[in-house]
Amino acid sequence: MRIETRLPHGTSYLLPILGGEVRLRLDVMPPAPIAFGPPMTDGPHPLLLLLDADLHYPVAAGLSRLLQVTGEVPPHWVVGLGFEGGEAIDVYAERRIRYFSPWPIALPAPYPQNWVSGQGLRFRQALVEEVLPFIEATTQAKRSAFNLIGVSLAGLFVTRLLRDAPTLFRGYGIISPRLGDQDRRMIREFDGLSAGWLPLDTRIVICAGDREDVPGTDLESMTANAAELAGALQGLHGNVQHHVHPGETHASVLGAALSRSIRALMALGEQPK
């Protein structure tokens, strides 16, 4: 069902999944041509799917459009995946904890202790069977050039998906992944994989700020954990970028990290360093 869009140039939809258990909000931004450049080809064009769109879609869509019209990246679709009602911060927080955590997680105060977590595998199945077919039919984008970005808890979801379904996307952007305490097991799950586990052309970019760490919280070792994840993946695959953004916190790193991720995932030929 089409609904009022968040931004100019785009369209938005509500998509029920999991038998109507929850409705996703999908915000779709079409490719943009280079300003004063040659006409844009008909496509099909690549696509960038952004999780956590309730907070991050306006930033990602704006940066993507800027990079396209200035010719730094080729034309591509941007689709933001959020939740119905996700403009309310409590709805946004509850849904992402429920559906992006691959296993039950401990919820620190002030989160309500009755919130459910650990539904990531169910959500991944819905992503494969319901969401991606809808996006492909709606955009006519190039399915072999779909890319996925997740931030924080959604970054953990993307990491888990990369480990279990490495061919589902062409590229994976992992920004400030939640890998503290119990979730550090995710890094260890790449141990023992062979170099051929991932197609050679798969792109991976991992970003974090150098001021993310907050002692005594889930953000205690964000920067170091992201670096450890990058090291584990670089030992298996040659196309892994790792960027630490100076002076950026867990919140402020978003702009720099999204810009870097879009450039890395969408670049033609040699990727920017």
UniProtKB/TrEMBL annotation:
Gene3D superfamilies: alpha/beta hydrolase. It comes from the Bacteria. Keywords: Hydrolase. GO terms for molecular function: hydrolase activity, acting on ester bonds. InterPro entries: AB_hydrolase_fold, Siderophore_Hydrolase_D. The keyword Hydrolase applies. Belongs to the esterase D family. This is Alpha/beta hydrolase. It comes from Rubrivivax albus.
